[in-house]
Specification:
about 400 residues, alpha+beta, Nuclear Transport Factor 2, Chain: A, Glucose Permease (Domain IIA), 3 domains, 25 strands
């Protein structure tokens, strides 16, 4: 990238190229995609270890774009790896394909939804916003606190305060909910997002009923979670969508929470890997293992704290460690944000911060309950493209 580009809305027929949107196939590997599109496999093998592993985390059903010439030649492909970075495959003037990891161009907006129950919270949120992710997140947040089948009735109000990213004028990535409430028979149930990224009730108690624990005893974190970081030495963007724990080979790996094993096998990047699907909709990942505990296989039920495997260095690994990931659907989240806190409640400065956050959100809740605003429909913009000032070729974000 590194070039100044001019953002334009352009009719592509003037340039003889067409943008073809497509969704990433669930279960398809990046190598299989390259082979299917007759693109050079060297694009994958020239990536370093960390970027090769990232290709395994391409979200299923991710909205991708392909720029194709009038001669049906692929000129560019954009594949989101998370909500911050994307793979850019492009054809050079010398007719050679190259690939870079570049930032995703998106815009974030703070939004508030007020709606009244007609059928069910999920259906009513989806009807008001068109966002399945927002509807699903609201339901998960109140699971175990509110019985949406028995407790609610038509007319009960709910409010969600959230930040939503837009890419090409459409919803992109998981919405970040700052706070939400629902009022049932005059009783308010509210949840607030604190500065640590966790959710709490009005009294400061951790709201999630399903709490995870660290997968290694006396864990020593060696690498944290980041979706986007510019490497000052390599001069390019990197991501690390998990947390690494350093440990001796053979150290026991524990299930972070109760669930069912949905994958136990080998991955080219992550090596010997186990994935566990939990009842709250999240999936945990344990990579680079030396081996699995006897009896662990696809479909195995595990309890929190059960031994599932042993620390190793399989796959693309520089040494013995556990790569620990957490996913909401196919979207990676910071595993530490859902770990059980050592202490409950807030004191001192942290308590004052929480009270300020709670007061601000309560004011928003009360205002929306009073004004009952209708949700503004989001405009569906045309695709946005940029023109390289040196080659004058049209490229899509």
């Amino acid at each position: 990238m590194g070039r100044i580009v001019l953002l334009l809305l352009l009719p592509l027929f003037l340039f003889g190229s067409t943008v073809k949107p497509f969704k990433w196939n669930n279960g398809e590997s990046f190598l299989t995609f390259l082979e299917r599109k007759k693109l050079p496999l060297a694009l994958f093998y020239k990536l370093d270890k960390e970027d090769q592993k990232l290709t395994e985390d391409i979200p299923y059903r991710a909205n991708c774009q392909m720029l194709v010439s009038d001669k049906n030649t692929i000129e560019q492909v954009l594949i989101p790896m998370n909500d911050e970075l994307q793979l850019q495959i492009y054809l050079t003037p010398k007719k050679r394909y190259k690939m870079h990891v570049i930032p995703i161009v998106s815009e974030s907006y703070s939004e508030t939804l007020y709606t009244e129950i007609k059928t069910a919270p999920y259906d009513d949120i989806l009807r008001s916003t068109g966002s399945e992710r927002l509807a699903s997140k609201f339901v998960k947040m109140f699971k175990g606190r509110v019985n949406f089948k028995k407790d609610i009735k038509p007319g009960d109000p709910l409010v969600i305060v959230y930040e939503q990213k837009y890419r090409l004028g459409k919803y992109f990535s998981m919405p970040e909910v700052s706070g939400a409430m629902i009022e049932i028979s005059g009783k308010r149930y509210a949840v607030y997002r604190h500065t640590d990224g966790r959710y709490y009730d009005a009294k400061g108690a951790q709201f999630e009923k399903f709490i995870f624990k660290l997968p290694i005893r006396n864990a020593r974190m060696t690498s944290g979670f980041t979706k986007r970081r510019y490497h000052p030495v390599l001069h390019r963007y990197r991501a690390h969508v998990g947390v690494d724990f350093g440990a001796r080979p053979g150290t026991q790996i524990l299930a972070t929470g109760e669930g069912r094993v949905c994958f136990a096998g080998y991955s080219s990047g992550y090596g010997k890997t186990i994935k566990i699907r939990h009842s709250n909709g999240l999936t945990s990942l344990y990579a680079h293992q030396k081996g699995f505990k006897k009896g662990i296989h696809n479909g195995s039920k595990v309890k929190q704290g059960d031994i599932i495997g042993y620390v190793g260095s399989s796959g693309l690994s520089s040494g013995p460690h556990l790569h620990f990931g957490m996913y909401d659907g196919s979207t990676p989240i910071n595993p530490l944000s859902v770990m059980k806190k050592k202490t409950e409640g807030f004191t001192g400065k942290e308590h004052r911060q929480f009270v300020a956050i709670r007061s601000k959100l309560d004011r928003i809740f009360n205002e929306k309950m009073r004004t009952k605003p209708l949700k503004r429909k989001v405009l569906d913009f045309q695709n946005t493209y940029y023109v390289d000032k040196e080659t004058f070729k049209v490229k899509a974000f």
